[in-house]
């Protein structure tokens, strides 16, 4: 029976992490990135609720202990039932979430959206509730072996995260949802299958055959490049809007492990960001490329020699200044940047694309005009940062084209998205690849008030000051059109003839100068006239500021240059904006009334309330039962909670929940740069941490283990690991992907083994207490505390990372483990 419980727990844990990874992609595509963040809270809130239920009703987990004595009418205990409930609730969640007309944009003024949001949240919590019930009950029932059950939970979870990568690549989100339900059904085999009736056997076999068949069909459709999204998208997503265009159709649709790609034809796509209004011709025919159902990027169906608009694009001046040059184009998406370079006379173009599915989609739908198949074009399937670290060539022009959709600065929808290509360190690497006398060029959207473009300039200026001898004033050129600002940098400094040519180009195309060496105020704000020359004034004040920190602090939006420690380029929120945002709440079309940052605040308040209820309701309920039994002189119905140990249990397991997430989340975030994508970072780091933590858990009862020194070693390793990752980013970023994965796993192994020990050590303490007095609800209550603390810490970690950086989050995590260690050392056994 013990082996079956271990297998059931591992299967249920694997299904849970597979579902969690899948829901991250589900919500990112169907809604927006900040909704994907809800997944962690959803998962752990379900676990917290399961612990509270088990603490209130200890007879539930006693089913597992008596399973061998039953007639197997409940499949041999609660664990198989929770597997069945998990599988059913996954299907229910998928149906309900696609059925409910939830609209995040109108939640601030349309009250029924709040009801939809609550239903959304609760339905998605159901699978995690069932999973928590099964695992928590198994922990409580496995007296003396809880460390092995916990190890099975951790290792199964790690495997589930990796299975998600393959499932998403094969069959997309719908297929991964099906697979998570199938893995959940494996838990049925943790019961005594010898006692199953023929009907029950046929039913289970039929479910597996049906689920496997659906997964296979979805795989064939997806790999055939014509997979439907399979999700109900927000009506404000770019793909939803493009498909409203009469005659538009999706001609390519496919999932991979990290994205969803759709290519839309005949959607009226006419996208040439920054094009001068002096251009009198027609834009070329274009398909639209949508990444994760977001706004379309152009795929221009024209050969470079026929691209007549090229000379009217703002970046054309760079190719005119460096004709017949070698050009590096970073993350060109649908290929417009490569087309510009070839049309501008580039001799050779190297295109760096982190998502190989983009290139596949472009080539499958562009036929003879496929830009990545043109002569002289070389494609590197790497992230920009990995390529810049690995490749040692120099280029006449390094071009970072504008492929992002326009994002209103006040919306905050992308505040939580980390962007390692727009940090100070990223610009340092880009400028290092510029040849002597070469040019770096980037275009960003204009915002009102100025924010995105000014933040970009601030990061570039800081990068120049860190690693180059030139004065930023002499190396920087910036000009704007109606919607975009183009920034050019020559690390060697611009000469007078080049500045003269830039002035001529901007005047011919009606672009307004923002900065050149020796610029005069009257040269600015001439064509696209604003009430005042605010962009020029801001750049002038930025370059001339004696104290940049004060300059950034006094600006109404957060424009401090992002770093690899705080890579949140699109997070512009400051607390000073709170009053203004609350004043317009419900009056704006932007999601949540104007700032995605408030999503975190609202979520934090929500999970704190839920967590307090889930933690203390079992305590209050048991105390009431105890009083009733004493007053009526009736035999005590339930044992209740030991008064003297109550706060020790609460603090210990609460600190473990806080510490684990506060260490794990920064490591995942720091691994994104090294591993190339959030999904890869999540899956590989989770695999490493949970697998080695499982190994640590399995050693928790070893007689040779120096228990009271474990926490000291854990705190030290938590503090050392970030510095090891900094060294990895320097030494290993340019190495092959497999080598980077191995190095990440090996680096995390010592820390992870230690992270797996505190929870089973705490369980052993509770088991000894239960041996002295029949406290059947202690372990479920600890499970609830740990889960709820993890919910709160997941939200707090995001808030602290946005405001103070990942290193601060990790320091708090180490302090939490230190607090738990001090408490553990003071326990009397």
Low-confidence stretches: 65-75, 589-594, 631-639
- Envelope shape: globular
What portion of the residues fall into strands of 2 or more residues?
5-15%
Number of helices: 28
Largest sheet: 8 strands, mixed
Strand order of the largest sheet: 7-6-5-8-9-11-10-12
The percentage helix is: 55-70%
How much is the radius of gyration in Å? 29 Å
Describe this structure in words.
The chain is α/β, with parallel strands linked by helices and 829 residues long. It has helices at residues 2-30, 33-36, 38-56, 59-65, 78-99, 112-141, 146-185, 198-223, 238-242, 316-321, 336-343, 356-366, 384-390, 424-432, 452-467, 472-475, 496-508, 534-544, 548-554, 578-583, 597-631, 646-675, 678-698, 707-731, 737-755, 758-772, 778-804, 806-826, and strands at residues 249-255, 260-265, 286-291, 297-300, 326-330, 348-352, 377-380, 395-400, 434-445, 476-480, 484-489, 512-515. Helices cover 57% and strands 8% of the residues. An eight-stranded mixed β-sheet has the order 7-6-5-8-9-11-10-12, with helices on both faces. Strand 5, helix 11 and strand 6 (348-352) form a beta-alpha-beta unit. Helix 22 (646-675) runs parallel beside helix 24 (707-731) and helix 24 runs antiparallel to helix 25 (737-755). The protein is globular and about 90 Å long. Residues 65-75, 589-594 and 631-639 have low confidence and may be disordered.
